[in-house]
Hints:
Elements lengths: L2 E12 L2 E12 L3 E5 L6 H9 L6 E6 L2 E2 L5 H8 L2 E4 L11 H12 L4 H14 L16 H13 L5 E5 L7 H18 L2 E5 L3 H7 L2 E6 L2 E7 L9 H8 L12
Amino acid sequence: MTNKIELQNLTKSFGTKKVLQGVNLLVPKGSSTVIIGGSGTGKSVTLKCVLGLIKADSGSILIDDQDMMKMGYRTRDDMMRKFGMLFQGGALFDSLPVWHNVAFGLIHGKQMEKDEAKKIALEKLDAVGLNKNVAALYPAELSGGMQKRVALARAIATNPEIIFFDEPTTGLDPIMADVINDLIVKCVKELGATAMTITHDMASVRKIADHVAMIHLGKIIWSGSIDELDKSDNPYVDQFIHGRASGPITDIAA
């Protein structure tokens, strides 16, 4: 199977604190890979390094076999046009109506005419179960679940090859979280995209993952298919997926 993303010995420190201590990860093309792990283990930093929001200290970030760590600004910018992103808090623009939030990357990234971009935005809103009446509203007028749907519509608006999900169900009740998980699966499959998610929500993992990797103390300590997760025989994985207080994971962040 071809890998869309490959992380090789990725490291990142902040001062004396070593957050990533040699992350190695394969993300197969057209599949959904979920990184699990507790708070402070390096999930978010790994994601931000791949997105280019943080510069890794060393290692390689291969996208389609091209190392983003060695790219110039323009080449890197072109590569990042393949990306879509659903941020943990939604990160919608309060001053823009819903349709413009969804179309933002089309208008400002691809210089698409507003009328054409709005048409696509309405199609993407429909894809996440929101009707056109929502398009003219502002984010503050929406519930948390609706805001998350809008953020998902924005993430898929440019038909990205890779979609990143940062704790996609945080702050949602269990029913709405399941709705968002279902939409993620639907949208990723319809696009034929590769998905990379970080989460601590095991319900999300079991719904959206094809492959799972667990990060602990800045390293991937286990990876495998979703079918292998419950029989990993890894005590760290076993403790985490069952939410047990006792076990080898003792450095639980307060």
